[in-house]
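During the no-cost extension, the postdoctoral fellow (Dr. R.K.) reprocessed legacy sequence entries with the updated structure-token encoder. One reprocessed record is reproduced below for audit purposes.
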Amino acid sequence: MPLYFSDSLGNLDTLVIGYNDLAWNVYNPIYDGTELTEPFDSVFEVRAAHYEDDWDDGFQWADRIMGGIEISSGIPCGVSNDLIVGVSCKYPPLTIFYDSTRLSHPDSCRTNTILSRDLGIFLLQYWWDADDWRCMSKVDKIVDDLQPHIFSNNEALTVNAELEGQGEVSLPAFFVVFRDWGPCTDSTILEVRVSDNKTEPRVFPNPCTSGELVTMEWPVASAGEGSLWLYTATGVLVRRQVFPAGQTRVVLSTEGLARGWYVILVRDVEGRVTGAARMGVY
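Re-encoded structure tokens follow.
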């Protein structure tokens, strides 16, 4: 499941996270890709990590990660091990957007996926007493100014990481907490299979030559006015195109685009992401 991140300038980054429901007691995440060892970008970059046994042991950073299950003694619910999201964002606010339909929707978010910057969330008797947490299945966009002043009872979560040109610094961070199986819940909280949604957009020709017209299409007509947002692989917004209600395809010009990979996001009239595709230009 991809999580998309953007700053106030339109820079974009993506994490792919998954829930490992195939193992019973997994204390380390499953990395789907290469560990990221270079410093964080000084302007904008987001990474996921997991710490082993102690904060002082440091983190292993990646942009694709699957959290496992940790069953705590005496607690009748399954909870994830600690999946941390570290953020380098020079120009906040940070916006996090994703497809919330990939998450289960039980009656109470106490049994669903939550996201929080409150360090006290695991120290309190009941985590829902923490000052700051978001129920990810109930919204598909989260905006955070990354300031610690919103936390009255506990500290905001931060992590120490290498930042390009600045050495080790303290970066703002989030917990992503998965709730799983047990007497307290009846559903897996994060879908890891390929979505059954058949409305995923496609782009053709893909890849294309610079200057060529490409078509992006999807099977279900848009209910209202929408827009395409074209980003470079480093997250820079280079093009935006509005389309009217009832559309199932949009023609996009690639005139002036440099060689490389691009990400196209489809947004509805309220700015919510309804689809995404990757496009290559050569």
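The chain has two domains: 2-177, 202-281. The two ends are 28 Å apart (CA to CA). The remaining legacy entries will be reprocessed before the final report is submitted.
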